[in-house]
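Morning F.,

Quick status update on the modeling queue. The single chain you submitted on Monday has been processed. Sequence for confirmation:
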Amino acid sequence: MTKKILLITLLLLTTGFFAQKTYKHIALINATAHIGNGKVIETSLVVINTDKLEVVSDIKGIKLSYAAYDTVIDLSGKHIYPALINTNNILGLHDAESVRATRDFAEVGSLNPHVRALIAYNTDNKIVPTVKTNGVLYTQCTPRGGLISGSSSVMALEGWNWEDAVLKADDGIHINFPRIIERKYNEEGESTLNPNKKYNDEISLLTKFFSDAQSYCNTTITTEKNIRFEAMRSVLAGNANLYFHCDKAKDIISVINFSIKQNIKKPVIVGGKESYKVTAELKKNKVPVMFNRLFDLPDNPDYNVDIVYSTPYLLQKDSILFCLQLEGDMEAMHSRNLPFQAGATVAYGLSKEQALQSITLNVAKILGIDHKLGSLEEGKLASLIVSEGDILDIRSNIIISAYIAGKPVTLTNHQTDLYIKYKNKYGIK
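Structure tokens below.
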């Protein structure tokens, strides 16, 4: 009897009896579509064909043939947005910060360009589902530590393993650029600013490494393979970004000069708390900024208390390509707040569509994936989210459906499961 049940179950599984019905040609109609490039279509027609966006237009004047699609979904009163992209984050690289064995984002040593966050990415991470439910569908998993931390990769928040999830492997190398001034804290938590005594030594070490890497990569025949220098090939050839983590204006200027001297074609500032002070130099050298988390205080008590909130507007005003990111304490968990960080910039000068761009199209441009993601445009991946209301507003950000490359995304997590469990237990409607 048991064998018969097993055979029947196997037959049903192989014939797809338990498989969820999937639609390859889907028309989403009548929603307000926020394209991601500043445009808004009030009554839209968005057509998904397998994994791509086939049509993105105004539905007015179009005589829709329902028979042409596998399914047609009326989203009147709802809003469609491009998938939100999380950058410079350890999401997927650890499960519990207090448990060393689960932390896969930092390696020992100072010069680690060969370390790849890609292969440490865990698709079964417990934090990831809590982030998807707020509309974040992609992340740039990023290593930490040392002078050169390693390479980051752009990952989808769905997949059986990292091979399934990867969108762009090894998009760039991350450098914790030496700081001219260091902030130190005493036992009482008070901070002081002091010159970095190791600054010249660190700059010399970094300069020598780049010079050696250039020489190695320019040599046609090598007798011995150097994995650290091999990892620098794409950056030195201009095929990948070089991410410089720094905040102060003087350090940003040092980064620009270092990039010019080393002929770095794609430098990116990560952090850039004082980037608003050097917008002329950033614009001249076409250096984008991944701006520091918005909900933070100024480093200097003499600065305006809202300067961190206002910096995105100042960068936008001076035509600096920038995006928002959340590096800092509990950054993986805070990833769910990415749309609300963008929403806060609206109160300090940005329009809602400009704020949306800072977590969609601007991100895609910086990462070099704007031909695939970042906006709702025909030919791009069908990665989008549908919300009850304004996705940038914590009160109306209610994601009802989402797609990653045309595939429906599961929008439940442990927290929603508990909510439903106890709601049913106590008969709450």
